[in-house]
Design brief:
The complex is a heterodimer of chains A (598) and B (392).
Chain A lengths: L3 H6 L3 E5 L3 H13 L7 E5 L5 E6 L2 E8 L7 H5 L1 E6 L3 H14 L5 E4 L6 H14 L2 E3 L5 E4 L3 E3 L7 H6 L8 E5 L2 H13 L4 E6 L10 H9 L6 E7 L4 H10 L7 E6 L26 H11 L2 E2 L3 H10 L12 H7 L11 E4 L2 E4 L2 E2 H7 L2 H10 L6 H13 L8 H11 L4 H9 L9 H14 L4 H11 L18 H8 L8 H16 L7 H16 L4 H9 L2 H24 L19
Parallel strand pairs in A: 1-2, 1-5, 2-4, 5-6, 6-7, 10-11, 10-12, 12-13, 13-14
Antiparallel strand pairs in A: 3-4, 8-9, 8-11, 15-16, 16-17
Helix pairs in contact in A: 4-5, 9-10, 14-15, 15-22, 15-24, 16-17, 16-24, 17-24, 18-21, 18-22, 18-23, 18-24, 19-21, 20-22, 21-22
Chain B lengths: L2 E4 L1 H12 L5 E4 L16 E5 L12 E5 L1 H13 L5 E5 L8 E9 L2 E7 L14 E5 L6 H7 L3 H13 L2 E12 L2 E4 L2 E6 L15 E2 L7 H11 L4 E6 L6 E6 L1 H13 L8 E6 L4 H17 L6 E8 L5 H14 L1 H6 L3 E7 L3 H14 L3 E5 L7 H11 L1
Parallel strand pairs in B: 14-16, 16-17, 17-18
Antiparallel strand pairs in B: 1-11, 1-12, 2-5, 3-4, 3-5, 6-7, 6-9, 7-8, 9-10, 9-11, 13-15
Helix pairs in contact in B: 1-4, 5-7, 7-8, 8-10
Classes of the chains: A alpha/beta (598), B alpha+beta (392).
């Protein structure tokens, strides 16, 4: 049974499994219009992206997306009280079980998909009973409690429908139906009569809804705000007999207004299957007529025609609620448009440019170049002096490494061919990749994997040897164990004040193994920068290992090299222009023509 | 879809396979090119119509104890009656008192076994002989096996077949035991059509028996549409020459509207039942409407109405679905006007303002307008208004 009063007091959020933008947006619109401070949906479980964009009022916001609960820290799990499963019928059983097992504070949720096998519904029925959580559905449009919670498309997904169906202010009538469409219709009838619903849910039209009609009736009986129950049933199934029993045994005492559709079925020789999976009278008990009789005999008010049903709901002597049909609040919401792009870096506000939410001029005056580079690259203001100092050093250190390297050479060739600044610079930048300059990122990937997967250094090196690949971050042409690279010790100095040094520690362990094999297999500049950056981000900036992985995926570690080395490339370009030697052409003796033999 | 019957042929293949029974049964249908199998002249045979017809024995659609020489003639006689799927199996001579009954129905509490030592075609008349037991695990079966005096192993295998292949219902009547050998003389199985993905080709949609009668090409086309879409579509012809055609949305609202036609005494005039739901796109709604209109134009009723009805949709977009409806109407508007068809609309939901306005403008311009209303009007009133036009 669903404890509606408990839900009214719950502050927890909603997680959706899968995504259905219209439904998710309607829930955010509901939250916004009832005056919540923040969206109730705080997480989407889906694959392929990090965020989805939605509107909060008129403003666009991002809702985080993760591919599974495994990546979710416990404190975030604690916050999730409800779910909406929007995934396909095939995935309903496994994903719903997973959510019930993963979320400690979960009260329950809704399954939206149609065509879930009966066997799976029954399995989830047992499972949810044992876990003491509620599940509404499958093939349900959800649960709505005015002012409090909208869990599904129930009541409509259009902003205007939220107002027309009076979902923004609470009333005293509980509305139930297996049919999603008729649930919407009845909510509207109640709203038009000025009474409003206390809550409403649709069980879904399957043969074995996990929340049964009698469960829903008991929830209404136990909810102090509910004064009357409106129920729309149809032929097929035997749920109405249970409801009749509840009324007969006085377990349900609140007035009930019932309508059972499907008398049309009797004009057919072989009764057809109607729209819902359960809508087929398998025997006399399951006909609309028999079920109406049972309810009537139990003492429920059952109407013969639909117009009469509507009239009686409309005229029922229940408290009227003052509601608004004021559309002015939503006019701007109806006109909103999705932006072409979204950004967290900078924007124009009242004619001023803001960088990371700070006024540009103030930002420029108060921060060093290194702090600005690091903050913009990370997409948020850096917290630590250590990171600023280290980035500053790296930017200075990587500025040039002679005209021999491929990027500088390309820039020089383009410059002497008479090309302009940007073309020549680009020609140099285009050589940056896994072989030239891009080793910092690859090294960071190595250290992160080595540490998070728990490798010991010897096995780690063996693993690379067996695959016959170089370890990025290890090895130098010139420097050796007995003639160390002076830059590397300078870089490592920046990690001295850190407490854990997981990554630089691991890198040094690896170096011990590799230099045991060959004296020039030392930790190089790329490897050292990667290790120290990882350590600082992890210890001083609060990056989790997963966050670090994402930085690697987006080539953050190469970005510093690109910025710094651009200075060197531009210097070579300007230098060549000054020297003005003309087009570079190789002499024949600079090229060796080799014949390939079979 | 939901629970659907599969052919007796398919059901027996599945059951015989798990029981290691010899697979001596044959199907004759367009699928098998109507070829009559080679039969053993020393045996007697049973020939049955295998199209899910209820009470077929009493309707004369089962021929028992036939010689091989008689088989062809019987097949011809069934084919002439319009039946296209037949089933042939060896006839097992037995006494009435050897007939037992067994059925299994998937219910919320487990699997409901009904069983009796007095089976046969009159089982309904002897309800007092039927025992009931809810079976949750295989252990609960012992008691039933003892009562029926049959091998426990047999019931266990049937139980696990039922469970693993997402059966919803299974009925063996009669089940005959002769000298410790079990014979399944008549078998009916309903499977859960939504489970196709999970049963690893144990059955598929080609095994489903959707209705005894042959479908029109329009109905076939909607069935096809439904199988390929996330949304749901249904279309059943009730009276091809009816005067009331309904284009309905929503499983619940569609029944309410069809009920109202019958309540007003126009049940015989109702040409179809059907509904679409689950937010179909414009193209799908177009295909659905086009097929319905094709049936409408074929009806030889003197005066015809089209009722486009539904409740307040939660997430089906009215503007988009109505665009598809209008596109289909537009294609045959001249014929509709010629046949004096009027269209009556009552619908609500996301973007209803735009959808209803476009519909009203279109119907008005093309002289098809009966009435267009939103959710302010009581759902069933649109039926009354349409009927008034029909009677005028």
């Amino acid at each position: 049974m669903i404890n509606i009063e408990k839900i009214r007091q719950t502050k927890g959020n909603i997680v959706t499994i899968g995504s259905y933008p219209g439904i998710i947006q309607s829930i955010l619109d509901f939250d916004y219009l009832v005056g919540k401070k923040e969206p109730s949906i705080s997480l989407i479980i889906a694959s392929g992206r990090n965020y989805e964009r939605y509107f909060w009022g008129k403003k666009e916001i991002l809702i985080p997306v993760v591919s599974s609960f495994k990546d979710l820290p416990d404190e975030k799990k604690q916050n999730l009280s409800f779910f909406i499963n929007l995934s396909s019928a095939r995935r309903v059983l496994s994903s719903t079980k997973e959510i019930l097992e993963s979320l400690p504070s979960l009260l329950g949720g809704v399954i939206f998909a149609e065509n879930v096998p009966e066997k799976h519904s029954l399995e989830l029925y047992e499972f949810s009973k044992n876990k003491n959580k509620f599940i509404i559905g499958p093939s349900s449009v959800g649960l709505v409690i005015p002012e409090v919670l909208k869990l599904g498309p129930i009541g409509g997904i259009d902003v205007r429908q939220l107002i027309d169906s009076s979902l923004l202010s609470s009333g005293s009538v509980a509305v139930f139906s297996a049919s999603g469409g008729m649930t919407g219709e009845l909510i509207r009838i109640v709203a038009n009569s000025g009474k409003n619903i206390s809550f409403s849910l649709s069980f879904g039209g399957d043969r074995f809804p996990i929340t049964t009609p009698s469960d829903a009736f008991m929830s209404a009986q136990n909810d102090s705000k509910t004064k009357a129950i409106v129920y729309f049933g149809e032929l097929g199934g035997v749920d109405e007999y249970e409801i009749a029993d509840l009324i007969k045994t006085k377990k349900i005492t609140k007035p009930t207004f019932c309508f059972i559709a499907g008398s049309i079925s009797e004009i057919f020789e072989t009764p057809p299957q109607f729209g819902h999976a359960k809508a087929m009278a398998k025997n006399q008990n399951e006909t609309a007529r028999a079920k109406k009789e049972a309810l009537k005999n139990a003492g429920a008010t059952v109407y013969e025609t639909f117009p009469e049903f509507v009239r009686q709901i409309t005229n029922a002597p229940l408290e009227r609620v003052k509601t608004t049909t004021d559309y002015s609040r939503i006019r701007s919401m109806e006109q909103r448009k999705k932006a072409l792009i979204s950004t967290t870096i900078s924007k124009d506000e009242d004619g001023n440019v803001k960088i990371l939410n700070e006024d540009l001029l103030k930002f420029a005056k108060q921060n060093s170049f290194a702090a600005i580079v690091a903050s913009l690259f990370l997409g948020k203001k850096i917290k630590s002096r250590q990171l600023e100092d280290f980035v500053d050093f790296v930017l200075r250190l990587l500025v040039d490494h002679g005209p021999y390297v491929s990027g500088a050479l390309n820039t020089i060739v383009a410059s002497r061919a008479g090309r302009d600044l940007v073309s020549s610079l680009s020609s140099g930048l285009l050589t940056i990749g896994s072989r030239f300059g891009g080793a910092i990122n690859q090294a960071a990937d190595n250290w992160l994997k080595g540490v998070t997967e728990g490798w010991n250094a010897a096995d780690f090196v063996e693993h690379f040897v067996r695959q016959k690949i170089y370890i990025s971050g290890i090895g130098h042409k010139k420097y050796r164990l007995d003639m160390p690279d002076p830059r590397v010790s300078e870089i490592l100095n920046f990690s001295h004040k850190l407490s854990k040094k997981r990554f630089s520690g691991f890198a040094k362990e690896v170096e011990k193994v590799t230099t045991g094999k060959k004296a020039n297999l030392i930790l190089n500049v790329d490897g050292a920068i990667a290790a120290v950056l990882l350590d600082i981000l992890s210890e001083k900036e609060g990056y989790s290992d997963k966050d670090l992985g994402e930085l690697i995926d987006t080539e953050f570690f190469n970005a510093l090299f690109v910025i710094s080395r651009s200075v060197g490339f531009i210097a070579h370009f300007l230098d060549q222009k000054r020297l003005d030697e003309g087009l570079l052409r190789l002499d024949e003796d600079m090229v060796s023509a080799i014949e390939v033999k079979d | 879809m939901a629970r659907v019957k599969i052919s007796e042929y398919k059901a027996k293949q599945l059951v015989y396979n798990i029981l290691n029974f010899p697979p001596d049964c044959f199907s004759i249908s367009s699928k098998t090119n109507n070829k009559i199998p080679i039969l053993d002249p020393n045996k007697r045979y049973v020939i049955k119509v295998d199209q899910g017809v209820k009470g077929r024995f009493k309707k004369g659609l089962v021929a028992i104890d036939k010689k091989t020489s008689e088989v062809e003639k019987i097949i011809d006689s069934y084919t002439k009656l319009g039946f296209s799927s037949l089933f042939i199996e060896e006839y097992i001579a037995h006494e009435k008192d050897q007939e037992k009954y067994l059925s299994i129905d998937l219910v919320r509490e487990g699997k409901l076994f009904l069983y009796s030592n007095a089976g046969g075609i009159d089982i309904e008349k002897h309800k007092e002989n039927i025992k009931k037991k809810i079976v949750k695990t295989v252990k609960d079966i012992d008691e039933i096996a003892r009562y029926l005096e049959i091998d426990k192993n047999f019931l266990e295998k049937i139980f696990s077949l039922f469970d693993q292949n997402y059966f919803s219902f299974l009925e063996i009547n009669p089940l005959v035991v002769i000298k410790d050998r079990i014979y399944i003389l008549d078998l009916a199985v309903e499977v859960d059509s939504t489970a196709q993905f999970f049963v690893k080709r144990a059955f598929d949609e080609s095994d489903f028996i959707l209705e005894a009668r042959t479908k029109t090409k329009e109905e076939e086309s909607i069935l096809n549409l439904s199988q390929k879409s996330q949304a749901a579509f249904r279309l059943d012809i009730l009276n091809p020459n009816g005067s009331i055609f309904m284009l309905l949305s929503g499983g619940g609202a569609s029944i309410v509207l069809a009920d109202e036609v019958a309540n007003q005494g126009f049940g015989k005039e109702l040409a179809n039942y059907g509904e679409y739901s689950g937010n179909p796109n414009k193209e799908e709604t177009y295909i659905y409407t086009k097929n319905l209109l094709s049936l409408l134009l074929k009806s030889n009723a003197m005066k015809k109405v089209l009722i486009i009805g539904g409740g307040v949709a939660n997430f089906t977009d009215i503007r988009i679905t109505f665009k598809g409806v209008i596109q289909a109407l537009d294609e045959v508007k001249k014929n509709l006007v010629k046949q004096k068809v009027k269209v009556f609309v009552r619908r609500g939901g996301p973007h209803q303002e735009e959808g209803l306005l476009e519909m009203r403008n279109f119907l008005g311009k093309e002289d098809l307008l009966g009435k267009v209303e939103g959710p302010k009007m009581v759902l069933t009133d649109i039926v009354l208004i349409a009927l008034k036009y029909l009677e005028k």
